[in-house]
Write a structure and sequence with these properties.
Blueprint: E1 3-8, E2 17-22, E3 30-31, E4 33-34, E5 44-49, E6 53-58, E7 65-70, E8 74-78, E9 80-81, E10 90-96, E11 99-104, E12 107-111, E13 116-121, H1 123-126, E14 130-136, E15 139-144, E16 149-153, E17 160-161, E18 168-175, E19 181-188, E20 193-196, E21 203-204, E22 213-217, E23 220-224, E24 229-232, E25 241-244, E26 256-261, E27 264-271, E28 274-280, E29 286-288
Parallel strand pairs: 4-8, 9-13
Antiparallel strand pairs: 1-2, 2-3, 5-6, 6-7, 7-8, 10-11, 11-12, 12-13, 14-15, 15-16, 16-17, 18-19, 19-20, 20-21, 22-23, 23-24, 24-25, 26-27, 27-28, 28-29
């Protein structure tokens, strides 16, 4: 019932960027304040919320600091570690099961119930160098570039390697229009896409296809190869993957810049030496924007 948002150039202060909170009422819509009583004119960025706090980057500091505030919007403070040092240079933040996880100096950290940053996994010493940290079904996943492995933290337990995935380099969560998590997609360095709908079992979407780009369109996975365009839904495997063709039934080669907008896939196609903007219509056919044929 509480929303946090960043307001640029608000009418109350002269700051360029101010963090606000709202409970949906006029009286409950206020600028967030710090412990000293002043506004949070910290150029906040990268907002993430748990059940009881909002976390954000203080981009006005150098290096950037991780801050948090409770749902009242009063008393924002910098997050400290066990040595009372401010947490700086945190990246790849995600929330799983009400806990904030983040990467700091290649190690995996979390913020405990008392608001203290704790090193959960010493990535440098373990040779893991965590990256691409992502939550799915309340578990945490991350990649390790040196080995190409995909790792998983289930229920706050020690990390373990996910079997059946190699060359993991990018993680994307597919969500429907209501924001419900449907699948976790893992892109590999060898051009393969892996998927899971339960966070436990991973399988290659189609070993015969090497993707060049992909995008989530309200829970449907669209991906391009050099010579074709495809759509995958449901369990996101071979049996649920179809090729998108143009209105003449021909393959769509060289699709680039795949973009989702209002539940529709838009992409670029080069024809006759010029790049055209295309879309996929309600009939599942690709066609140039401006051509409104029903199929």
């Amino acid at each position: 019932s509480t929303v946090f948002f960043v307001l640029d150039r608000d009418t109350v202060s002269t700051a360029a960027s101010v963090l606000w909170r709202s409970n949906g009422t006029a009286d409950g819509t206020i600028p967030v304040t710090v412990m000293a009583g002043g506004r949070v004119n910290l150029n906040p960025n990268d907002l993430l919320t748990t059940d009881d706090h909002a976390y954000f980057q203080h981009t006005g500091s150098n290096p950037q600091e991780l801050w948090r505030v409770d749902l009242s919007g009063v008393g924002a403070t910098a997050v400290l570690d066990a040595n009372s040092a401010k947490v700086t240079n945190s990246v790849d933040r995600t929330v799983a099961a009400g806990t904030l996880y983040f990467v700091r100096n290649s190690s995996l950290w979390l913020v405990d119930a008392g608001g203290v940053a704790v090193e959960f996994l010493d990535g440098a010493s373990a040779g893991l160098n965590a990256a691409n940290i992502t939550s799915f079904k309340n578990d945490v996943f991350f990649t390790v570039a040196a080995t190409g492995d995909l790792w998983k933290i289930q229920g706050g337990t020690s990390p373990s390697v996910v079997v059946g995935v190699s060359g993991a380099s990018q993680l994307t969560v597919l969500r429907n229009a209501a924001g419900t998590e449907l699948a976790l997609i893992v892109a590999s360095t060898d051009g393969k896409l892996y998927s899971t709908t339960d966070g436990a079992t991973f399988a290659a979407i189609d070993n015969s296809l090497n993707f060049t780009s992909f995008v989530d369109v309200d829970g449907a996975l669209y991906f391009a190869t050099g010579s074709s365009l495809h759509k995958s839904v449901s369990t996101y495997g071979v049996g649920n993957t179809t090729e998108i063709k143009d209105i003449d039934g021909a393959a769509i080669a060289g699709a680039t810049d795949l973009t989702s907008l209002d539940g529709t896939l838009y992409f670029g196609v080069t024809k006759g030496g010029e790049k055209q903007l295309w879309r996929v219509n309600v009939g599942g056919k690709g066609l140039p924007v401006g051509l409104f044929q029903s199929v």
